[in-house]
Amino acid sequence: MGLIVQKYGGSSLADKERILNVARRIVETKRDGNKVIAIVSAMGKTTDKLIQMAREISEVPPKREMDRLLSTGEQISMSLLAMAIQAMGEKAISLSGPQAGIMTDAYHSKARIKNVAADRLKKELEEDNIIIVAGFQGENADYDITTLGRGGSDTSAVAIAAAVDADLCEIFTDVDGVYSCDPRIVPKAKKLKVVSYDEMLELAILGAKVLQHRSVELAKTHKVAVHVRSSFNHNLGTVVKEDTSMEHNGIITGIAHDFNVAKVVVFGVPDKPGIAARIFGEISKLDINIQMIVQSAQTENMNDIAFTCSIEEAKEAQDALEKVVKEIGARSVVITDNLAKVSIVGAGMMTHTNIASRMFSALAGAGVNIDMISTSEITISVIVESDKCQDAVQALAKEFDLLENK
Amino acid sequence: MGLIVQKYGGSSLADKERILNVARRIVETKRDGNKVIAIVSAMGKTTDKLIQMAREISEVPPKREMDRLLSTGEQISMSLLAMAIQAMGEKAISLSGPQAGIMTDAYHSKARIKNVAADRLKKELEEDNIIIVAGFQGENADYDITTLGRGGSDTSAVAIAAAVDADLCEIFTDVDGVYSCDPRIVPKAKKLKVVSYDEMLELAILGAKVLQHRSVELAKTHKVAVHVRSSFNHNLGTVVKEDTSMEHNGIITGIAHDFNVAKVVVFGVPDKPGIAARIFGEISKLDINIQMIVQSAQTENMNDIAFTCSIEEAKEAQDALEKVVKEIGARSVVITDNLAKVSIVGAGMMTHTNIASRMFSALAGAGVNIDMISTSEITISVIVESDKCQDAVQALAKEFDLLENK
């Protein structure tokens, strides 16, 4: 019938039984008359174990070697899965990222895909092989293995789907699809049938773990329809595709939250031109992903400049800024990390004006104090204390009608 | 001072402490003014664990996928070792077999090296990098990973030493060198200072586990001097190099033994031309390594044909021969496997004529019955019952003066 790209995450491949389950699923898809390319992550906690081994050997493992090391995880799962499929009587072949033609830039540990040279993939498809590809990895111009960052296998899958012009890209995971908010926090969260690329992108960036945001970006650029679903049942999941306004579920599609947020505040910054550029110039050298920035005017030509980033990056940022603080005559750099970011996302927001005030009232009603605010076209994010996060998500889910009606 | 190729086996890299130990050893060699290329095996029992995983997934794992799977073991140890060396302040880079330019034929699971394209190795040496190379693996013409068979890392090391014209090839292992016989069976076994390529080759083929025989073959062809020594101390080990008759230690250099021996007997084979060819033609299709062949004349134009091979291969051979037996009108095929092969090896044998009789007398004196015999220019091997193996080796060590004089 068609050419289907599937991606199976680490929890779907955690042990022998699960590998056999995935193999059966792939064989089913093949026997339904499709050609199949399956992209795999490393088994269960393999990647974490490898990272642990590296840290025991070296405090700051060099990134090139770390990429080499981590890339073995997917190569183990791909060969075992290919064996399982062959044992079920279908032709299968495993390919590493480089063999599958995934060419990346040179940034070890967070390389970006430049191109998929799909010759080998096409040859193996012509020979009627089911192809198993190691996700999360590619090769740079020096023929060295690179990795695409956590969750990179999603991006591998979408890139391959685009390169071979697949009819469908299915992302198999351990949940049933994309929910309006995290079902672990809000048990009555609604499963979304359809989400637009833009909404999914914001949800992913703002903390929904179900897809890596770069994979969504790529899917949007190449118009790849992505079906997010569970590898443990046959339920339909969530389709991520182009926005068509008739499909809006409501004004707000979903709520994301993220506990990996720290606030870095530089106190007593002299109010002179170029100072902010000096501060953020230093941060950008570290390749830190800044989320929100707030500058608050203070007395006596002094400002406080605050920004948020991930907790790991906050420590790096602080170390780098200690020097700058002295240089520019600021007072100090302080990190706060018992925080969470709660965001509402919805394309409908563009045509409704009272969303922000409804959000802030709902939070106030739930006794949640707001520390920082940022907005974009289709999102509003607030920083709150981490132990108020659950209350905040629940209040917003109720306010914006994101609960299952049962 | 020079360019040194070192090889570290799995037991030398079994855990974090041992990896750090090897890293220190390599760094020492570098700081003594040498350029270093180190070839590594997989950590400890990694390969066995991967094989176990594969067998749980598939009864007969396909060899291409098995090679892919097993090749990850060396890639893990090489990256961890490169990290450890960098943490000690020296430049280091890890390269997989394909990256190091190890080109092989297409025979998965026992590929042979065709060529080492050493450009990348030379480039990294010029940049003053210590190079860590994954042993045991290469790449075939289809850009697929192949493995070189058990112990293949020794062969990787010698091939690389030849390709870069190294001044020395050191094989680090968990024993102090090559012994006249197995010290676990004969505690007073003598450590050999020098062994010729031919003697080492025979010892390796006949069961001495310390070097893969193909590595010795390769060393002989390319005249690479190989120093076998322990990674746990700084003692001098055994140098394997070209034979110069002045260096003979005695008539017999060493004794090898091997418990992985089975005898396959085809009973009642009609004595007609072409029958032996039919039998061994069938066996050769299976790529089974035949060791000895004995044909004994019987009554009524019938022979028994017996041969030895490894225990795993004997079962395969039997299955294949059942069909042939019917076809040629022979009686039956029977396997015996409680056997051991004991061999004496020595270049001095060529100029002495009474070695065989001394060997058989010594065995008779120790109450050891001989089942089969085979000889070559510098070896005599006998098949004995496995529980007589130790007695046989001890008697021969005494007869041929292979014990330490202390």
Please describe what this structure looks like.
Chain A has 2 domains: 2-174, Acetylglutamate kinase-like (Carbamate kinase); 255-400, VC0802-like. In chain A, 35% of the residues lie in helices and 25% in strands. Chain A has 11 helices and 20 strands. Chain A has an 8-stranded mixed beta sheet with strand order 3-6-2-1-9-11-12-10, with helices on both faces. In chain A, strands 13-18-20-19 form a 4-stranded antiparallel beta sheet, with helices on both faces. In chain A, strands 15-16-14-17 form a 4-stranded antiparallel beta sheet, with helices on one face. In chain A, β4 and β5 (113-116) form a beta hairpin. In chain A, α5 runs parallel beside α7 and α8 (275-285) packs across α9. The first copy, chain A, is globular, with a radius of gyration of 23 Å. The relative contact order of chain A is 0.11. Chains A and B meet through α1, α2 and α3 of A and α1, α2 and α3 of B.
Task: Draw up the topology in text.
Two copies of one chain form a homodimer.
Chain A lengths: L2 E6 L7 H16 L3 E6 L5 H12 L5 H25 L4 E4 L6 E3 L8 E4 L2 H8 L3 E5 L2 E3 L5 E3 L4 H12 L4 E6 L20 E3 H9 L7 H10 L3 E5 L7 E4 L12 E5 L3 E9 L4 H11 L7 E5 L4 E8 L1 H18 L3 E5 L2 E7 L9 H11 L6 E5 L2 E7 L3 H11 L7
Parallel strand pairs in A: 1-2, 1-9, 2-6, 3-6, 9-11, 10-12
Antiparallel strand pairs in A: 4-5, 7-8, 11-12, 13-18, 14-16, 14-17, 15-16, 18-20, 19-20
Catalytic activity (chains A, B): L-aspartate + ATP = 4-phospho-L-aspartate + ADP
EC number (chains A, B): 2.7.2.4
GO biological process, one term (chains A, B): threonine biosynthetic process
